[in-house]
Design brief:
Length: about 210
């Protein structure tokens, strides 16, 4: 791929919205590794596994106080990484045909950051990665949920292009965790194409 060379490295945040360190964890970690090795991207990673993440209770503390969320849990450090990054990768396993509960809570709780500064995520680039035990188990609805979040927060959702990576990276893990992701050649192709496009768009925005 022949892209413009930016004056600084692209900063990418990878988020795994899975309570386990298996398929989703590997897919997001591998995406960051690919971006780092091929594009010299600076990367940060957050996994929901083992984290205390309270769900949004719509108390409006963030709106009234403009001081972040009422909950001082493990998302506090993630907020800083979200602001730091030029581009995000949100990865989720498919639960009941859509994103996991952990993924949904993470994106819901971003309200606390936006309440303090409505433009904080504007023009950041975002992609999604989803995996399921079935080839068509809900990966695309999950990606659309992630894209909706990006659009609402004035980010730029990116897919990998027609014929294989329409909405982003999609994997069929066959419930085999990391092994299932590694062996899914179609999924890997969709991931690489999506990362390539994410880098291209991010560099264009930084160079503007």
């Amino acid at each position: 791929m022949n892209f413009l060379v930016s004056e600084r490295n692209i900063r990418i945040l990878g988020i795994s919205g899975s309570p386990r360190k298996k398929a989703t964890d590997y897919a997001v970690s591998h995406a960051l590794e690919y971006a780092s090795e091929n594009y010299s991207a600076s990367v940060e990673y957050f996994s929901a596994k083992g984290k205390t993440i309270n769900f949004c209770i719509h108390c409006d503390y963030c709106i009234r106080k403009k001081e972040g969320c009422v909950f001082k849990d493990d998302l506090t450090d993630l907020y800083d990484k979200m602001i730091w990054a030029d581009a995000w990768i949100i990865g989720t396993p498919v639960y009941q045909g859509n994103v996991s509960g952990q993924t949904k809570v993470i994106i819901d709780r971003c309200r606390a950051v936006v309440a303090r500064n409505p433009n904080v995520f504007r023009n950041k680039v975002g992609i999604g990665v989803s995996n399921g035990g079935d080839r068509t188990g809900g990966q695309e609805p999950a990606l659309k949920t992630i894209h909706d979040f990006y659009i609402i927060n004035e980010m730029i959702p990116i897919g990998g292009g027609a014929f294989g990576a329409n909405l982003g990276g999609t994997f069929w893990s066959k419930d085999k965790g990391k092994e299932g992701i590694e062996n899914d050649e179609v999924g890997m192709k969709s991931l690489y194409r999506t990362i390539d496009r994410m880098i291209e768009v991010s560099r264009t925005l930084i160079d503007c």
